[in-house]
Amino acid sequence: MRAAVIERPGEPLRIEELELDEPRAGEVRVRMLASGVCHSDLHVRDGEWDRPGPLVLGHEGAGVVEQVGPGVTNPPVGALVALTWYAPCLRCRACLAGRPWLCSGSSSGRHRLPDGRTPLHRADGSEVLAYCGIATFGEAIVVPAQAAIVMPDGTPPEVAALIGCCVSTGVGAVTKTARVEPGSSVVVIGLGGVGLSAVMGAVLAGASPIVAVDRVPAKLELARELGATQGILATDRPTTDAAIRAATAGGPDYTVEAIGLPSTIEQAVEILPPGGTAVLIGMTPFGTRASFEVFPFVDGGRSILGSNYGSSVAAEDFPRYAALHLAGRLPVDRLIDRRIGLDEVEEAFDRMRQGQGVRSVVVYR
């Protein structure tokens, strides 16, 4: 199988031929059909997140189950599945409390299978790790059965792939982590795949107004097409803040920060009126810090929520988001601006660094 391998963070990807193990008990082999190119992959590619190597990147994917290991009855062979990059152990305190996005026993963070091995090897037998345990920048992968979520019939593979990360992260941040109430005002700062998914989540929640903020006019236009009631072209901070306050009667009930920059994180907190909530979903480089003035934050009863994976329970939420897409209520396909081959991922990273486009998707033939 072909895969995009990074020897160590900060180095370019290289397409290699790798060997893939057969699935063992509790595992399934998935032939990949589609993989989104996410900013979390770029953090590793550019050395902003320290990860072990060699490593096959990619963590936003969907494919077809080709083979199941002993004891696996779900998913069945032939099913279209979306892969979750945080396969829960189903045994730890968080999992037993129904919060698998906080699982402390997942092997995904070690980029290995639960038994400690990696299913990927070079011809000389040396190990190659699988990013988040699913390595979607490869033509096939072996994963724990609980990482492969069966999708409804008719779900396009590219849509299933994006549900596996950016859609669940953005939609869930609004509807599950923050539990935005109908009629609440929501401002989304940063309109990549996650930010635009947050816009769609605000629409599902019945929020109004929904204000989208970005530096790229084309992204503002797409946000309006997806349901934002207003778009604000970000310029200098005072001008942008004034426009946000004017659009939300003095400040929003909720801000959603979907970039991961100290300046926009601070903006998301400081633009809040009394009682407002900032929802932080943008991922920063390791070691990044942001600050805010404490007195008005406490005096105004403001809140900050960190949202990991949109508080996703993958087995329940992935099929639900797919059903909403099929019903015309969650237009995930609008996030895809380019379909590429595996050897074009580095180019997709370049576009991401420049703020171009929304989501490039690797389509496997």
Low-confidence segments, ≥5 residues, pLDDT <50?
none
> What is the percent of helical residues?
25-40%
Mind telling me the CATH class of the largest domain?
Alpha Beta
What's the number of domains?
2
CATH topology of the largest domain: Quinone Oxidoreductase, Chain A, domain 1
Series of H and E elements: EEEEHEEEHEEEEHEHEHEHEHEHEHEHE
- In DSSP terms (H or I, runs of 4 or more residues), the helix count works out at 10
Number of DSSP strand runs: 19
Terminus-to-terminus distance = 12 Å
Could you please describe the fold and organization of this structure?
The structure is a single chain. By secondary structure, the chain is an alpha/beta fold. Strand 18, helix 10 (345-353) and strand 19 (359-363) form a beta-alpha-beta unit. 28% of the residues lie in helices and 23% in strands. It folds into 2 domains: 2-164 and 311-363, Medium-chain alcohol dehydrogenases, catalytic domain (Quinone Oxidoreductase, Chain A, domain 1); 179-306, 3-Layer(aba) Sandwich (Rossmann fold). The strands form 3 sheets. Strands 4, 6, 7, 10, 11, 18 and 19 form a 7-stranded mixed β-sheet that branches. Strands 2-1-5-9-8-3 form a 6-stranded mixed β-sheet, with no helix packed on it. A 6-stranded parallel β-sheet has the order 14-13-12-15-16-17, with helices on both faces. The chain has helices spanning 39-45, 93-96, 157-177, 193-205, 217-225, 237-247, 262-270, 294-299, 314-326, 345-353, and strands at residues 2-6, 14-17, 19-20, 27-36, 55-56, 61-68, 80-83, 120-121, 127-130, 140-144, 148-150, 186-189, 210-214, 230-233, 254-257, 277-280, 303-306, 336-340, 359-363. Helix 3 crosses helix 4 (193-205) and helix 3 (157-177) crosses helix 9.
